Amino acid sequence: MTRNLTIGRPDDFHLHLRDQQMLAAVAPWSARLGRAIIMPNLVPPVVTGAQAAAYRDRIAAALPADATLRPLMTLYLTEATDPADVVAAHAAGIIAAVKLYPAGATTNSDSGVRDFDRVRPVFEAMAQARIPLCVHGEVTDPAVDIFDREAVFIDRVLDPVRRATPGLRVVMEHITTQDGVDYVRAGGDIGGTLTAHHLVINRNHILAGGIRPHYYCLPVAKRERHRLALVEAATSGDARFFAGTDSAPHPDHAKESACGCAGCFTAPNWLPICAHVFEQAGRLDRLEAFVSLNGAAFYGLAPNADRIRLSRRDEPATWPARIPAGEDSVTVFDPGFPLYWHVEEAA
Ligand code: DOR
Ligand code: ZN
Question: Structurally, how many domains does the chain consist of?
Fold first, then answer.
């Protein structure tokens, strides 16, 4: 049995660090990453290059002195986004990508896009400049069942946008369905991120035997057959799939509520969860591609030069059940089974 695994320092291609007190609380838990794509859905959202640069500086200030993390910033696409601003921010090295939230799809998405025709000039400029578009792939039509929203988005929005904009590089974020996996596999300028939590929970975990708000996120976890498709994609070695945790902290009072908000906080344990999943699949040899290589390649980045060691110990890894955040706390995602893979600092 493999006991030690040395891999390039992992990156996270989809991370929410928030701002102010919450940023201070969660940033240390992502400090030992190589790079992370930082989501821009703050209140108000990060819509200009100047705001992205200021947010990057606030993140740097919140990180401990020994942090290895280099934040890769994104802009939040609105119907008022100026294509020239996007291209300039990218050319200046301030942003690595742009994030598309359909308006109303998820947390802080009110400023997102309602009419996709209105952002066509931005897509065209991005295609020209090869700037990746990170897509929250769910329709918001209330007539569409929440479990179908990802599959319907592919047909109604994503595929028409991609056909109309040759050369547009797309990351289909936090894929939760076989449909999403198949769509990324169909190819073109497209990659897909997969979260650790969607690799280990299905919709029964959220709803059977009681409602578990800390398993609620968007896109919501689907049936078991979809989870199995995600595990297959992650562990296949296919370079189009890579880790993006969507670690999305919320204060416990906002999760444990009559109308709880969406998001799983996985920053403390996503890597041991991934190691567990890959071990179970008999594909530990492909873990490094998923967490450390494929995403960097998609974004045109060199792999991180330094390495970390994972060790499989007899005693399970531990982490706090919840971390303090200002007056409140944030519950850490509980995979529901012990994790024997430990992240050791030095390789
Ligand atoms: O569960 C989610 N939480 N999904 C998202 O798309 C947004 C995120 C958040 O910002 O809380
Ligand atoms: Zn997210």
Answer: 1
